[in-house]
Amino acid sequence: AAAAASGGSRADNGYGGQQARRRKGPGALATGYLVIYNVVMTAGWLVIAVGLVRAYLAKGSYHSLYYSIEKPLKFFQTGALLEKYLLIAKYLPGIVPSSVVLTAFQVMSRVFLTWAVTHSVKEVQTEDSVLLFVVAWTITEIIRYSFYTFSLLNHLPYLIKWARYTLFIVLYPMGVSGELLTIYAALPFVRQSGLYSISLPNKYNFSFDYYTFLILVMISYIPIFPQLYFHMLHQRRKVLSHTEEHKKSE
């Protein structure tokens, strides 16, 4: 996941960097709130991870595990909207040197996939592609929220920093693949049912084809995904190399 990357110790812990030195970060009250928020979100995604493992052990199969974590997934993934409002609207410009547009796209695309695709098109909930993005999201979010929590407390273990800037190399393409395959699987059902589509004539003189909209959403991944991915690769080189240099200088 490419949102909110930064550089070493306080300056590269996800809530610092050059922009933090130019602008004030969150105050004590906001920091306290963000610590609590990130702890809760870490715990929530751990609940999802445990739910997946327990369901797999009980069923002996990875098929249709979505139903075992559907409710917490919807709750905690939607909860990211609150986080992004606070960070993007209030704190992000001063403490997290990443693109607001790219960050917003990433969050909204996940919430959109959770509700407007997986929830709305029941037929895709048994697709293996759903498990693909759920597993990728779960691991990513556990690492990310742990990263934010320890960063705010100024005590970031190297292992978490390394995981934050390394595991995305596999997890991000894995998640995007699952998302795209799930949208693709939903297309025939959306076309057949006319889900969320508005046809003419109507009193608003407006039409909307949800099937076409989903295709456009898939196309939008083409320019956005490389930007997010290469941004993280750049951040990885900067952050981890800075950390190694810091260790050598001690």
From TrEMBL:
<keyword id="KW-0812">Transmembrane</keyword>
<dbReference type="GO" id="GO:0102158">
    <property type="term" value="F:very-long-chain (3R)-3-hydroxyacyl-CoA dehydratase activity"/>
</dbReference>
<dbReference type="GO" id="GO:0030148">
    <property type="term" value="P:sphingolipid biosynthetic process"/>
</dbReference>
<feature type="transmembrane region" description="Helical">
    <location>
        <begin position="91"/>
        <end position="118"/>
    </location>
</feature>
<dbReference type="InterPro" id="IPR007482">
    <property type="entry name" value="Tyr_Pase-like_PTPLA"/>
</dbReference>
<keyword id="KW-0456">Lyase</keyword>
<keyword id="KW-0443">Lipid metabolism</keyword>
<keyword id="KW-0472">Membrane</keyword>
<comment type="similarity">
    <text>Belongs to the very long-chain fatty acids dehydratase HACD family.</text>
</comment>
<dbReference type="Pfam" id="PF04387">
    <property type="entry name" value="PTPLA"/>
</dbReference>
<feature type="transmembrane region" description="Helical">
    <location>
        <begin position="210"/>
        <end position="230"/>
    </location>
</feature>
<dbReference type="GO" id="GO:0005789">
    <property type="term" value="C:endoplasmic reticulum membrane"/>
</dbReference>
<feature type="transmembrane region" description="Helical">
    <location>
        <begin position="34"/>
        <end position="57"/>
    </location>
</feature>
<comment type="function">
    <text>Catalyzes the third of the four reactions of the long-chain fatty acids elongation cycle. This endoplasmic reticulum-bound enzymatic process, allows the addition of two carbons to the chain of long- and very long-chain fatty acids/VLCFAs per cycle. This enzyme catalyzes the dehydration of the 3-hydroxyacyl-CoA intermediate into trans-2,3-enoyl-CoA, within each cycle of fatty acid elongation. Thereby, it participates to the production of VLCFAs of different chain lengths that are involved in multiple biological processes as precursors of membrane lipids and lipid mediators.</text>
</comment>
<dbReference type="GO" id="GO:0042761">
    <property type="term" value="P:very long-chain fatty acid biosynthetic process"/>
</dbReference>
<comment type="pathway">
    <text>Lipid metabolism; fatty acid biosynthesis.</text>
</comment>
<feature type="region of interest" description="Disordered">
    <location>
        <begin position="1"/>
        <end position="24"/>
    </location>
</feature>
<protein>
    <recommendedName>
        <fullName>Very-long-chain (3R)-3-hydroxyacyl-CoA dehydratase</fullName>
        <ecNumber>4.2.1.134</ecNumber>
    </recommendedName>
</protein>
<dbReference type="GO" id="GO:0030497">
    <property type="term" value="P:fatty acid elongation"/>
</dbReference>
<keyword id="KW-0256">Endoplasmic reticulum</keyword>
<feature type="transmembrane region" description="Helical">
    <location>
        <begin position="165"/>
        <end position="190"/>
    </location>
</feature>
<feature type="transmembrane region" description="Helical">
    <location>
        <begin position="130"/>
        <end position="153"/>
    </location>
</feature>
<keyword id="KW-1133">Transmembrane helix</keyword>
<keyword id="KW-0275">Fatty acid biosynthesis</keyword>
<keyword id="KW-0444">Lipid biosynthesis</keyword>
<keyword id="KW-0276">Fatty acid metabolism</keyword>
<feature type="compositionally biased region" description="Low complexity">
    <location>
        <begin position="1"/>
        <end position="11"/>
    </location>
</feature>
